[in-house]
Amino acid sequence: MSTATLDTTTSERAADTPALLAVSYLRVSTREQAERGGTDEGFSIPAQREANARKANELGARIAREFIDAGESARTADRDGLQDMLAFITASRVQFCIVHKLDRLARNRADDVKIHEALLAAGVTLVSATESIDQTPSGMLVHGIMSSIAEFYSRNLATEVTKGLSQKVAQGGTPMRAPIGYLNVRRTDEQGREIRTVEVDPERAQLITWAFETYAEGETSVTGLLRDLTARGLVTVATPKRPSKPLGKNTLYKLLTNPYYAGVIRYKGALHPGAHEPIVEPALFDQVQSLLTARNAHATRHVQHAHHLKGLLHCGSCGSRMLLDFATNPRGTTYAYFVCSGRAAKKTTCTRRAVPVQVAERLVEDSYAAITISEDDYRHLAAEVDAAFDKRSAGRDQEFADLTTDRARLEAESDKLLAAHFADAIDLPTLKRHQDRIRAGLADIEQRLREHDEQHTGGRAFLHDSLRLLTNAHRAYVHSDAGNRRLANQAFYTRLEITEDERLRPRLAEPFATTLHETTGGKEAKREHSTSSDVACSRKTLWVELRGFEPLTSSMPWRRATNCAIAP
Questions:
Q1: DSSP state of 455
Q2: What is the largest CA-CA distance in the chain?
Q3: Dihedrals φ, ψ of 200, to 5°?
């Protein structure tokens, strides 16, 4: 919206005759019209201005101010230029309001009546530069007819546009501006017809794909991903009004949840297969959605720890957690201790003495020497793992085949529903209801297929990695920093208790507890278990820091795996 005061006097008035004043209102419906021809106002606004100026000259009036709504629909009266004009004529001595046509002012009968009443209340006469309307009965009749025609045109145009967009979606077309990573392209065919298509943006598409792949690894947040994308140079597509700029956090979140990148168009709440080239695999897109949902439901908390054993130790006498405390002697030297929280808070009758931090560190460090296994033990247990998984997977092939068949059936049903909707056999609410049901069914199948893969491929690899960790656990712990030591303690142990006589009583986590049970029984015990071992898996997630525990490539410093154990 913009306003301008015009100083041009359209005719010479007698010196003693007050000049008649008018306001000129100009409007175009779309930004494209306002910018057509590479100019700031396009073609329509200047044409309307000239017609209104000629009409003011015929009336013997001077246009005091001009009001413009560029790219604003007349289906609503909530337009900046229109509201400014109504406020101006209320506070000014204006006789005429000149419009190029009545439909520039309003395109529904109710708004037309309200605007006309506001003009009459201010003593202003509405004038059309191209239509014969006045305050006579015949003029008012023409005004009413033209207003009704404008409303009919607007409603009919909206219906036709919606119909055209629905047909475009049915053919896989894009009914909106293509998101970042794609380009809206116009070309002319051999018959001179304009063809509008969507093509992959060669500059940005690779960054979008990289963003999905990186986030799916589970090692970064949306904020961290945005920082990396900005550093790699991802910016929006420039327009005549807006230069390129980096994405915002909300924009990136919408990008990660937009199924368009996986070849699916979301239109009026329903999903439709698109004809454009996907730049993200559907499985990768679903994986990102699962991560986003999980992280929204359970926000990750980052806690700063003063010591890597803080919060991990328990009193061996009463079971209370041991707290980190500090004491200063008369010479000003400060010593760190772990004290029983039950005794400190007087919640128990525990008389447990404080344990110096150095003693607690040594006890935990020595415990890793006790759980380290030999290379021979590793090879033996790895063979047992492979045998157990091979035995179980032999009976799960049919289940996998059934899940795959169910997925194909639901996908075919979804295609039939879309075809029925486009043939007007079912309405949009019915389509959305069935799509929600199918989407839930497909999500359940995909989850079960992922669990099937985790329990066999992922579970097998996890147990092999766990066994490998045990072969050099003590050396790796000794050479790790405080942060990695804390992660190692959380991975290997469920509880660390220090007894009254300053001994460590650790409780191993799975699968390490079962693994050491296998190894400490001697060779005879191993042979007994080798014929009856089974694989017990849970869906509990375990994060294991592998850096320092086994050789890794630089691209994979972490591993996320299903918590699986060999059960005796």
A1: I
A2: 124
A3: -65, 135
Task: Let me know: does 214 contact 203? Beta carbons within 8 Å.
Answer: no
Least confident range from 65-74, 350-359, 387-396: namely 387-396
Check whether the bond before 511 is cis (ω within 30° of 0). Answer: yes
Alpha carbons 5 and 3: distance in angstroms, whole number: 7
For tokens 């520039």, what's the residue? 104
Q: What are 141's two structure tokens? A: 């009749």
CA gap 441, 435 in Å, rounded: 10
The dihedral formed by the CA atoms of 153, 156, 158 and 162, expressed in degrees to the nearest 10: -160
What are the E-state strand segments in 374-513?
493-498, 504-508
498, 360 contact by CB (below 8 A): yes
The end-to-end CA distance of the chain, in Å, is 77
The one-character DSSP state at 246 is B
The pLDDT mean for the chain works out to 76
Q: 549: pLDDT confidence band, cut at 50, 70 and 90? A: very low
Q: Please count the CA atoms within 13 angstroms of the CA of 411 that sit on its side-chain side.
A: 11
Per domain, the residue ranges of the chain are 2-158, 199-281, 370-396+439-567
At 532, the pLDDT band (50, 70, 90 cuts) reads very low
What is the SS3 assignment for 511?
coil
CATH code assigned to 199-281: 3.90.1750.20
**In the structure, how many helices (H) and strands (E) does the chain have?**
20, 17
248: number of CA atoms within 13 Å, CB side? Answer: 2
Q: Where are the beta strands (DSSP E) in 111-237?
A: 125-128, 182-188, 194-200
What is the C-alpha to C-alpha distance for residues 531 and 522, in angstroms, rounded to an integer?
15
Fold match flag (2-158 vs 199-281): no
User: Which positions ≥6 away from 134 have C-beta within 8 Å?
Assistant: 125
Count of beta carbons in the 10 Å neighbourhood of residue 355:
18
Burial of 400 (0-12, 13-18, 19+ CB in 10 A): middle
CA angle 248, 249, 253 (to 5 degrees): 120
Could you tell me the fold of the domain covering 2-158?
Answer: Rossmann fold (3.40.50)
Q: CA-CA distance, 54 to 176, in Å (whole number)?
A: 39
Which segments within 117-252 are labelled E, that is strand?
Answer: 125-128, 182-188, 194-200
Average pLDDT over residues 355-359: 92
Full-model pTM: 0.39
